[in-house]
Amino acid sequence: IQMTQSPSTLSASVGDRVTITCRASHSFNSWLAWYQQKPGKAPKLLIYKASTLERGVPSRFSGSGSGTEFTLTISSLQPDDFATYYCQQYNSYWTFGQGTKVEI
Amino acid sequence: QITLKESGPTLVKPSETLTLTCTFSGFSLNKSGVGVGWIRQPPGEALEWLALIYWDNGKRYSPSLKSRLTITKDTSKNQVFLTMTNMDPVDTGTYYCAHRPIATAGTTFDHWGQGTLVTVSS
């Protein structure tokens, strides 16, 4: 299953609502995760099963979708949120999207 | 508290074989359903899953790299190993190991090591 994220880069300001989209080449049931990665650091799991927030992740992050289209939304962008975000399907092995860089 | 740490050579020559070790704590690879995976990331590029080993010694490999990869474990030492043969400069990148919880948790790689940078160059 191929995963395609859009946009590749997103310019935003603190307080903005941000949405990142991930499209799958084949439909599957909600086995989708979102990660945040900062430079020089390992990815951090934010959301799994398309919409379940990982423990300790702020509630401004949310996920939705099913089938072939999934979204990650940040309701009010905070300074700590400027990073690269990856989607990952785990329905059939594991595949990552190409990433979306959220920059100021 | 789950922790993982990767170790291995930082520099390998083209055509050589790379062996990486993932040493973990805070969970047991004897527990039904648990797995440990390897993921890599070339500089400035996206993440790529490589391989995963389950508690029962079941193994999964990326189809595109399967012929070059071997994943094994030493449960008594809490270690997982990844071997990649015939290294090429395009294999340069940061290699991560990660914990995969039991399937009923419905989640995926939830704890990651800090990563180890491997450079392939003569």
List the helices and strands and how they pair.
The complex is a heterodimer of chains A (about 100) and B (about 120).
Chain A: E1 3-6, E2 9-11, E3 18-28, E4 32-37, E5 44-48, E6 52-53, E7 61-74, E8 84-89, E9 95-96, E10 100-103
Parallel strand pairs in A: 2-10
Antiparallel strand pairs in A: 1-3, 3-7, 4-5, 4-8, 5-6, 8-9, 8-10
Chain B: E1 3-7, E2 11-12, E3 18-25, E4 35-41, E5 48-54, E6 59-61, E7 69-74, E8 79-84, E9 93-100, E10 111-112, E11 116-120
Parallel strand pairs in B: 2-11
Antiparallel strand pairs in B: 1-3, 3-8, 4-5, 4-9, 5-6, 7-8, 9-10, 9-11
Describe this structure in words.
- The complex is a heterodimer of chains A (104) and B (122).
- Chain A is mainly β and 104 residues long.
- Chain A has strands at 3-6, 9-11, 18-28, 32-37, 44-48, 52-53, 61-74, 84-89, 95-96, 100-103.
- Chain A is built from no helices and ten strands.
- In chain A, strand 5 (44-48) and strand 6 form a beta hairpin.
- Chain B has 122 residues and is mostly beta strands.
- Helix content of chain B is 0%, strand content 48%.
- Chain B contains no helices and eleven strands.
- In chain B, strands 2, 4, 5, 6, 9, 10 and 11 form a seven-stranded mixed sheet that branches. In chain B, strands 1-3-8-7 form a four-stranded antiparallel sheet, with no helix packed on it.
- The model of chain B has no long low-confidence stretch (mean pLDDT 96).
- The interface between A and B is medium-sized, with 23 and 20 residues.
What is the typical, i.e. mean, pLDDT of chain B? 96
* Gap between N and C termini of chain B: 40 Å
Shape of chain A: globular
Instruction: Work out the strand percent of chain B.
Output: over 45%
Structure classification of chain A: mainly beta
Largest sheet composition of chain A: 7 strands, mixed
Total beta strands of chain B:
11
Radius of gyration of chain B: 14 Å
Name the pair of protein chains with the most residues at their interface, and give those residue counts.
Answer: A-B, 23 and 20 residues
By DSSP (H or I, 4+ residues per run), the number of helices of chain A equals: 0
Residue stretches of chain A low in confidence (pLDDT < 50, at least 5 long) are none
Q: What is the succession of H and E elements of chain B?
A: EEEEEEEEEEE
Shape of chain B: globular
Mean pLDDT of chain A: 96
Largest sheet of chain B: 7 strands, mixed
Helix content of chain A: under 10%
